[in-house]
Amino acid sequence: MGDPVTVHPSLLVKDLLFAYPDGHQALHGVDLRIEPGERVALLGPNGAGKTTLVLHLNGILAPGAGTVEVAGMAVRKDTAQEIRRRVGIVFQDPDDQLFMPTVREDVAFGPANFGVPDVPARVAEALAAVGMAEHADRSPLHLSGGQRRRVALATVLACDPEILVLDEPSSNLDPVARRELAEVLLGLGRTMLMVTHDLPYALQLCPRSVILDDGVVVADGPTRELLSDTALLARHRLELPYGFAL
To answer: ABC transporter domain: from which residue to which, for each copy (predicted)?
Structure first.
C-alpha cells in the first residue's frame, strides 16, 4: 500500500495582519479555513476588510504577518503565477475581465497565458458550464449584463482553479439573470468564497458564512443561523431585505 494522500484545505489563512502604507490596519489576525467543495459567503459592512483579504489570496497584497495557503501552496512572490491560476477571482464588474474581440478569445486568454494544456477544449468546457457556448463568437460588448457575468466566470473556470472567489456576483443583475447565475454556480461543484452584501443570495448559495468587521472575523457558522441572529447582524451593519422570511 502507498502512503495516504494528504488532502489540503482549498484555502488556509492563518493570523493574517495587514496595514496600508498610511498606517490603517485593515486586517487584525484573520484566520479562515475552507475545505474542498465548500461554499462560503464572506459578509461584512463596507470597510470591513473583505476586499483587502481577497487581494491577499492571489498575492496582489503581501501580508504584514501571517500566512495564506491555497491547496497546500504558500502564497509568495515565487509562487504567484501558479497561485493566480489556483485562485479564480471573478470581479464585480465584468468589464474588468472582458477585453478581447470575442467571447471565445476572452475565455482562452487565461489558460493560454498560464500554459494550461488543450486550450480549445478548456474553453468549450467552460462556456458549456456557464450556458454560453452558443455565444462563443459574439463580442462581449453585445451581451446582457447577466451573460457577461457568466462569461467572466467562464474565463476563470477555463484555468481550472482550486477555489472560485466571487466579488458581489449578484450586483446589478435583474431577477432572472440573478437566478440563472445561481443555478450555474450551484451546478459547478466548485469550492467557492463569495463576497457579498446580498444576504438572501448568501443563504441560497452558501451553507456557511463568515462575518468580517473591522479586520476581524466576528462570526463563522451556518448561514441560516447567522442570518437569524438579528442582534449580530445589527452590530455589524448587516440587514436582510424588508419582509424577507428565513
So the answer is: 11-239
| Sheet-wide strand order for 208-213 | 87-90, 163-167, 192-195, 39-43, 208-213, 216-222
CA distance 10 to 107: 23
Domains plus CATH for the chain?
11-235 (3.40.50.300)
63-97 confidence digits (pLDDT tens): 999 999 999 999 999 999 999 999 999 999 998 89
Smallest CA-to-CA distance from 82 within 95, 91, 73 is with 73
Burial 213-234 (b: 16+ CB within 10 A, else e): bebebebeeebeebbeeeebbe
Q: Are 157 and 130 in contact (CB under 8 A)?
A: yes
**pLDDT tens-place string over residues 168-181:** 999 999 999 999 99
SS3 category, 42:
strand
**Cα gap 230→98, rounded to integer Å:** 39
- CA distances for 117 relative to 99, 108, 110, 144, angstroms: 22, 11, 12, 30
